Amino acid sequence: MGLESSIENKNFTEEQVMQLASDLHNKQWKESFKKQNPEAQTRIKINVMGKWKNYPQDLAKVSEAEKAEMEKIVRENPTFDTPGVCEDILNTPFEKLSEKWQAENVGAARFALELVTLASESDALEGLADKVHQNWSKNNSWDDLSKIPYDQLSEEEKEKDRQHVLWAKNILGKN
Known about the structure:
Elements: H1 4-8, H2 14-36, E1 44-48, E2 51-55, H3 64-76, E3 81-82, E4 86-88, H4 99-118, H5 125-139, H6 155-172
Antiparallel strand pairs: 1-2, 1-4, 3-4
Helix pairs in contact: 2-4, 2-6, 4-5, 4-6, 5-6
């Protein structure tokens, strides 16, 4: 299944891409994040020296200079709503995310729609979900989960990838 060919023969619209991107963030990701992190009230992303970090989770993993920069950004942005600098992606709807975070969701949506468009009736959900994970891993190589093959992921992590496929099928009316 070559995804490159679907770019010329798109069987979905940009509106469908944007709808799926919005749904993946506003519904699928948020629900999954809250289920895995029931105590979490926020998911803060901070742009530190050109790299996005999770706050406060990454404080122990960064250099002293990065830590100082993170703390400065937090002091200057107490509401975590400065696009491109400091964002609470858990409490920000897709439509108000910065271009960077919207682009991540749009890329994931486009990939899932292309995958489902090119899939045959015989393509199993697990195989398609594996491809979603491979794509996510390629785009998120900094994350430890990107180094784990799909078949070795926890059921919770596999379910996220399955949901990308199922949401794309729903958008395309291929239930």
